[in-house]
Write a structure and sequence with these properties.
By secondary structure, the chain is an alpha/beta fold. It is built from twelve helices and twelve strands.
C-alpha cells in the first residue's frame, strides 16, 4: 500500500473462519465458512474509505473484526501505530474510545426501554463519567446531529422515525469521543430524502470533528458521493482498492466493472444489452481454486482457474487490483497453468 507509514488505520492479512458445526474429539473437523481471507488495507486520518461488494462478501464481518465484536483468527489491526490486543499496543476497551460503529438497523441497536437521553449517555457512564455530566452532554450531542433536545430528549425509540433513530445512533457514537467511525449500511434503510440529509450530516461532522470514516454500503452512488477511497470485496477478499476517481473511472477488475455497469441509470439512451454479471457467488465453505471470481468472469483464462492473483499495483501505484489481466502475465504462466489443469 502507498504511504503505509502515515496510515491511521492499518489492517494486515485479516482472516476469519466460522465453523459450521461443533468439533467432536477424534473426528474430522467440520467445514468452515471462509468469511474473510487475507484482507489488508490502509485508511489515512480524515479520509473516508468506502467498502462495497455483494451481500455475503465479508464487508460487515470486516467491520466487526475491526471493532473487536468478533475476534480474528489471524492478522493485525493497528490504530495510530498501536496494534490491537498486542503487547505494547492497545486494548479492546481503549480501542472503543477511539473507534465506534453505527449499525444498519437503527431500532435494534437502541434499548426500547431507555429514553434517548439515557441511550446517548450510557456509553460514557459505563466508562466512568458522572451520570449528571453525561446526561448534560447528551443535549450537546443531540444538537450536533440535528435533533432538538427540548423535543426528543425524553422520547423513546418507538416514538422516532428511522432517520431520527439513526441520528441518535450517530450521537451515541460521538458521545464516546471517537476518531474513527464505522458506518455499516447506516443509510440503506432510509428514504432517499432522509438519506441525503444524513449523508450531509456525516460530511459536516467529519469536517468539524476531524473524523475518519469506514463507510460500508451496497449503493455505489452513495459510496462515490461520500468516499475518498474505495475497497471492493468479493467472497472475503479484496479485489480492488484505490481512489474514487481511479476505481469509478478506470476499474481494473472485471468484478468492479460488472458492479459499476449494474448501476441504474436515469438516461433512457443507456440500455444494457447483456447482463453485466450472472450467477451466484460460489460457496464460501468450498470456494473455487485460483481466482474466486473465475466462475463468473467473462474474461477468464486458464491461469485464473489455477492461480489466485495477489493484490498489486496497476499502472497507478495507488490503484491496486487482484487480477491477472491487470498484471504482467506471460505466456509461460498460461502454459504452466494449462499443464496444471491437464495433469
Amino acid at each position: 500500500m502507498a504511504k503505509i507509514d502515515k496510515s491511521f488505520v492499518k489492517v494486515r492479512n485479516l482472516k476469519k473462519y466460522f465453523q459450521t458445526g461443533t468439533q467432536i474429539p477424534f473426528l474430522k473437523k467440520p467445514p468452515a465458512v471462509k468469511a474473510v481471507e487475507n484482507v489488508s488495507f490502509d485508511v489515512f486520518k480524515g479520509e473516508t474509505l468506502g467498502v462495497v461488494g455483494e451481500s455475503g462478501c465479508g464487508k460487515s464481518t470486516v467491520a466487526r473484526l475491526l471493532i473487536q465484536l468478533i475476534k480474528p483468527d489471524a492478522g493485525e489491526i493497528i490504530i495510530d501505530g498501536l496494534a490491537v490486543e498486542k503487547r505494547g499496543g492497545i486494548s479492546t476497551r481503549d480501542l472503543r474510545h477511539r473507534m465506534q460503529m453505527v449499525f444498519q438497523d437503527s431500532y435494534a441497536t437502541l434499548n426500547p426501554r431507555m429514553p434517548i437521553e439515557e441511550s446517548i449517555a450510557f456509553g460514557p457512564i459505563s466508562n466512568g463519567k458522572k451520570p449528571s455530566e453525561a446526561m448534560l452532554e447528551s443535549k450537546h450531542f443531540m444538537d450536533q446531529v440535528g435533533l432538538d433536545p427540548n423535543i426528543y430528549l425524553h422520547r423513546y425509540p418507538h416514538e422516532l422515525s428511522g432517520g431520527q433513530r439513526q441520528r441518535v445512533n450517530i450521537a451515541r457514537a460521538l458521545a464516546m469521543g471517537p476518531e474513527v467511525i464505522i458506518l455499516d449500511e447506516a443509510v440503506s434503510a432510509l428514504d432517499k430524502s432522509v438519506e441525503a440529509q444524513v449523508l450531509n450530516l456525516l460530511t459536516d461532522l467529519k469536517s468539524d470533528l476531524k473524523l475518519t470514516y469506514i463507510f460500508i454500503s451496497h449503493d455505489l452512488n452513495v459510496v462515490k458521493y461520500i468516499s475518498d477511497k474505495v475497497m471492493v470485496m468479493y467472497l472475503g477478499e479484496v479485489v480492488e482498492y484505490g481512489t474514487v476517481e481511479d476505481v469509478y473511472n478506470s476499474p481494473k477488475h472485471p468484478y468492479t466493472e460488472a458492479l459499476l455497469a449494474s448501476q441504474p441509470s436515469m438516461d433512457p439512451s443507456r440500455k444494457l444489452k447483456t447482463v453485466p454479471i450472472t450467477g451466484d457467488p460460489p460457496n464460501p465453505i468450498n470456494p473455487p481454486s485460483g481466482c474466486k471470481f473465475h466462475t463468473r468472469c467473462p474474461k477468464v483464462t486458464d491461469l485464473c482457474r489455477t492461480v489466485n492473483p495477489k493484490l498489486q499495483s496497476t499502472d497507478n501505484v495507488d490503484h491496486l487490483t487482484a487480477c491477472h489481466l491487470a498484471s504482467n502475465v506471460t505466456e509461460v504462466d498460461v502454459l504452466n497453468a494449462q499443464k496444471g489443469l491437464n495433469s
